[in-house]
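name: query_chain
kind: protein
chains: 1
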Amino acid sequence: MASSPSRRAVLRTAALVAAAPVVSTIPVGRAAAETRAAAAAVAVAAGLPAPTAWAVRPFELEDVKLGQGVFATKRQLMLDHGRGYDVNRLLQVFRANAGLSTGGAVAPGGWEGLDGEANGNLRGHYTGHFLTMLSQAYASTGDQAYADKIRTMIGALTDVRAALRSDPRMLAVTGKWGGAHENVRGSYQYVDLPAAVLGGAAAITLSVWVKPTHNANWQRVFDFGNNATRYMYLAGRNANGVPRFAITTNGPGGEQGLNGTAALPLNQWSHLAVTISGSTGTLYVNGTAVAQNTSMTLNPSVLGTLTNNWLGRSNFSGDPVFAGAFDEFNVWSRALSAAEITSLQTNEAKNSAAGLGNLASYYFATTTGGTFADASGRGLTATLRRTWGGPSHPGFLAAYPETQFIDLESRTTADYTKVWAPYYTAHKILKGLLDAYLATDDDRALDLASGMCDWMYSRLSKLPDSTLQRMWGIFSSGEFGGIVETIVDLHSITGKAEHLALAKLFDLDKLIDACAANTDTLDGLHANQHIPIFTGYVRLYDATGETRYLTAAKNFWGMVIPHRMFGIGGTSTAEFWKARGVIAGTISDTSAESCCAYNLLKLSRTLFFHDQDPKYMDYYERGLYNQVLGSKQDKADAEKPLVTYFIGLTPGHVRDYTPKQGTTCCEGTGMESATKYQDSVYFTKADNSALYVNLYSPSTLTWSAKGITVTQATDYPREQGSTLTISGGSASFEMKLRVPSWATGGFRVTVNGSAVSGTPTPGSYFTISRNWQSGDTVRVTIPFRLRVEKALDDPSLQTLFYGPVNLVGRNSSTSHLQVGLYKNAALSGDLLPSLTPVSGKPLHYTLNGTEFAPFYEGTEDRTHAYVRRAEPKVVFGNTDSGVANPAKTDGTTLLDEIWAGVPFAGKSALVTRVRSTVDAWVSAGRLTQADGQQVITTAQNATYVP
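structure:
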């Protein structure tokens, strides 16, 4: 009997019927094969329904296979990393937050941990990135190992959400005498004791076994008090790292205390006891009296009835919750003797000379719930609670409590130590879940993603618009990344009106309105906080038809590119934008945050779906072949993805592939980039009447709508061209070959060896329309030339490009290299003849003793992405005229003006240009008649490369 179709298969088939032909923007899983077979007459399978507004649509990752080349080599490093990394380490922070067992897994730390720069406020974001990376890896390779990891993560996150919706439950571990309760660090759990626990006793003993797992100071073993003024506590570590007992009715300044002499060992059981009798207080550690105070005037009877009686939590809100395990907590209304304390070291209390505490006694024996019975006979049942209350609201899923989301709603200023972009982190998790669903057909992932959006809507829809506008305008705290895009994508599956309404709640009207009016207000804004917003707004246009979203996105793109773009395709300095047109003035060690390039690529391709302006794919090639490829180190590593955060563009900068403390946003997007290099190589027109070849990259496209495959064989960019071969059948369509804007001469196309008529125009698409047959071969020749691109605010500061490839100097100097390039420039304008090729190293050249190499090579060499152009003498064809190269007040030199006339048809055309330029400069008084004649004579006598 045939199995019933999955929910996703039904959605997929419905999408095909309603919107065929449809192409996915996110990879789909193996289960799609059954749907394809069942609907063989339908041309293209669906991941997400493609919007009707898209004139051009992408192929699924699984439809485009990478061939051997620079991309496949880089990708394999990331695939190996993803395959080998233990996902339980990523799940640790989620399980800890939910109070579940972490199985001994060690969280990766960095931004995904509780310490350091992120202060625990970004936990979970990296897990979302990792899910997306695994999903893309599975879609691209079909390797079941990635699907298995995804399902493990989805299962765990399902358990986490369920636990967050419930009251906390005891986490049973092996104790000193039997069962014990563990507070996993990051769980925010504590034991709440009844108010009568101290019994108003004047004399007292408190005894407990603890097994601390973290060395944070001021973790409370117990704290009985009303506030930060009236309390009695025992901390496992004070400011000096040793145990401290204190009691006060007048805050910290009035504390009467006892300090230990040595730190408690981590991950070992230690016994702590405090006795008070009369004016004497004693602190015992492992049966030994380590401190005594004979001048005490305070005891529990003085404190009165207290409201907060806690194990593991402090009355000071800034103190950490105790991380570790508790076993046997007893309270007696008398001071035990030293002998009785000693007997507790080798016996359970009930079998010791002391016996059970008569005020309270808790065994922490294994229980399925969150309450602990009192064995003292007083019936003072203790309850396990969370500091943030709870249970969480329906649908909530995160690796930290809802507290950051709550705080943001009243926050007016940025403080990432308290609130760091909770909706940004929510986006990463949401995106990972959606990608996992589309990759593996696991309905649990869709349920988790839909639930998250339900929860966000229930929260945000209650807030006034003024509050939302304030929230989204706060630096860092209000950052929400690409959440709008993902919510709209999810809405295309669920069809829930609330989900589309939720996406619109992230409108940042001030920014949208300014960009829609083409008013540039980007100076001073955090770059990556805003770039992904616009990809989401384009998707809102797709869903609503509101043109202001699309207009704003297009104008925004034009404000960044090229006006705030470095040559490699990156943007920002120290994460922020400066004034329009300032490039040289923003070069620093913290230039070009890698996330920015990732998100600019996404925005560019999304805009291209609406407007097939080649400038978007020109930028895509620039960013992908340079910054994105170059951000990944050419090295294997099991622990880290080895991706840059910033790419410093200062002279002699060394790229840092293990940035900050690890698990950063850029490492997350870097993992994603490296597993989707093929996502924009080919697009199809919505009606399948045209194939766009956007990038020249070794790859094989399976175009099921046409029943053919297109194989692209090339070593581009180490090869100056590509060969595309049709196989599998015949089909009529237009093949649109991108002519890069830098391909200013010699771009040629042949089909089956015959030249194709027409004139390719740089920065356009060259179209071949025919009925294609299996075996047809298209050869594209794309001659590279060495050119420079000048910083907009300092034309003398330049970066070198050979075709699409940015070349960087490898030199230990920390000053800008002085570079001259006209000395042997070709008549075509190609500056490459002034450099010397390095034998056996494609795309490597030397100039003045410095090796220039592709930026995309992920090395740790000191590099120079920008050089200082210096042409002190007028030189033609390596012949020095002996005449100084004069310059205008704006920095334009005589040689600049001469070579601005390229390409030259021949030597005579160059000489004519030299003569006319010299005459103009002599007339303007910038050059003497004699020097001018010498320049002309040198040009006439020189020999040139064509």
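note: The CA atoms of residues 873 and 884 lie 4 Å apart.
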